[in-house]
Amino acid sequence: MTALQEEFAVIYVRVSSKEQTKNLSIPTQIRQCTGYCEQQRWSVARIFQDLGESAKTTNRPELQSMLRFCRKHRRKINFVVVYAINRLARQTHDHHAIRAMLSSCEIKLRSVSEMIDDSPRGQYMESTFAAMAQLDNDLRAERTTIGMKAALRMGRWTFPPPTGYTNGQKPGPSLHPDPERGPLIRLAFEMASDGTPQMDIVGRLSALGLNVTPTTLNKILRNEIYVGKIVVPKWAINCQGDFEAIVSPTLFAAVRHRLFSGGSVSHLLDREEFPLRRFVRCEQCGDPITGSFSTGRSRKYPYYRCRRRGCGGVSIRAENLDLSFINLLRRVRLDEQLTKLFAEILRDAHSERQRGITEIRSRLHSRLDKLQKHEDRLVDAHLSGTFDERTMKRQLERVASERIEAQIDLDLIDSRDETNPSDRQIELACRVASVPHQLWEEGNLEARQKLQKLVFPNGVTFKGTKFGTAETSIVFNLLRDSRSKKERVVPLRGFEPRLPG
Ligand SMILES: [Zn+2]
Fold first, then answer.
1. Whether pTM exceeds 0.90
2. Is residue 479 part of a domain?
């Protein structure tokens, strides 16, 4: 390198949107930097300017392209010139990262206002400035935080509004319940307090135009902001907000009780007290009914209710609805004669299946026999000199794979075919058809729920004190019809003995 060799510099200037100070404006910075370069007799290769970007990150577009440019022209560029070190980076680590990158390209950093150089003193100055830049940045953040904490302690919400609220303006409350979403949040709390599964709540909210994930819903149900409180644990803030609550403290407590009383909400749903919840729908609005405990004077009674707010189509003591349902089952059950017919049909269907299976099995057996014989013939043909060994092996492989397939089919059928399960199944099916009310009364929650679904696959409706006209399972309908028509009917799935098909 000779003294006469031309040296090149790139200039980087930056102004953030908040900085209105005149002497820091872009033209000023550029003027200062180019003047400095002239003084040093450096040619300016390019000027990079970032406008109004955040001071916080190195993720500024022009800074990035400046660094790329430097790397690309590392042999040509000698200096990066900035007005002040804090133009380059406020954070010390950013600063060092940029410095490291530049020095790996053997490019030196110069600050017009801070007169840094590569002497030990210059280096010391440089890191001092970088540290000051960082301190300044931190203080700015701290100032913001202090202001925020003060506002929060005064009950003003300073973050983006949570779902269900909109931002308010001073001097009014800092939040307003969103006229559309606020009621949906309340609905979510009400459903959760009834023990509605969270997935159902998510579905209902979505149907009403509010999309939340199950995780978000869970956060909402735990967020005290909805009772009008501001709670920020990391700053030890817990105070009354200056805004209106969306849910009452009682409702919030009820939901919290459910969320925290071990297990999930859905786990609590299936309670012995409420076998008919969800299965019975409110005839007035179509919503499935829910179960909850009344707040009686001396003790709590289980109640079924329509869960839709303001509907009131169903509100009945659980034991009364249970009794009505037992009566309903008694009315739809098959009499003795029909039950006998039912059993006959089931037996027929079963033996038909059995015949089918026997047929398939014998077909598979004869196929296996044939394949075995074919193998023997192939070997004979080879031994008698008709086939060479290669041909024989190829043919044998083909036969073998077919044989394996047939064997697998046969194993499958044998493994599925239980030894005469029909009698037990038929007996049970007949009991379901003839004495469903008894089975329901005797059954536990699981048995009850299965049975009611078997008899009324589409559920039933209820209003006031009466069940609506419910569609019974096809078995009941068809058997009743068949009595008049004397027609042969096919039993529905669920009553059929399970067989391979
Ligand atoms: Zn209703």
1. no
2. no
Distance 302 CA to ligand 1 centre (A): 18
User: 447-474: per-residue pLDDT in tens?
Assistant: 788 888 888 888 899 988 899 887 777 6
Return the top range by mean pLDDT from 127-131, 234-238, 377-381.
377-381
Domain that includes residue 47, residue range: 7-145
Q: How far is CA 455 from CA 272, 446, 494, in A?
A: 20, 15, 11
Over range 29-47, report the average pLDDT.
Answer: 91
Domain count along the chain: 3
Q: What's the CATH code of the domain at 14?
A: 3.40.50.1390
Distance 285 CA to ligand 1 centre (A): 4
Cα 51 to ligand 1 centre (Å)? 59
Q: Are residues 309 and 240 in the same domain?
A: no
Same domain, 124 and 11: yes
Ligand 1 center to 306 CA (angstroms): 5
Neighbours of ion ligand 1 (CB under 5 A): 282, 284-285, 306, 308, 311, 313
Flag whether 128 is in a domain: yes
311 Cα to the center of ligand 1, angstroms: 5
Residue 33: Cβ within 10 Å count: 25
Identify whether the C-beta of residue 83 lies closer than 8 Å to the C-beta of residue 33: yes
Instruction: Give Cβ neighbours of residue 7 (< 8 Å, ≥ 6 apart).
Output: 40, 41, 42, 43, 78, 79
Task: Specify if 371 maps to a domain.
Answer: no
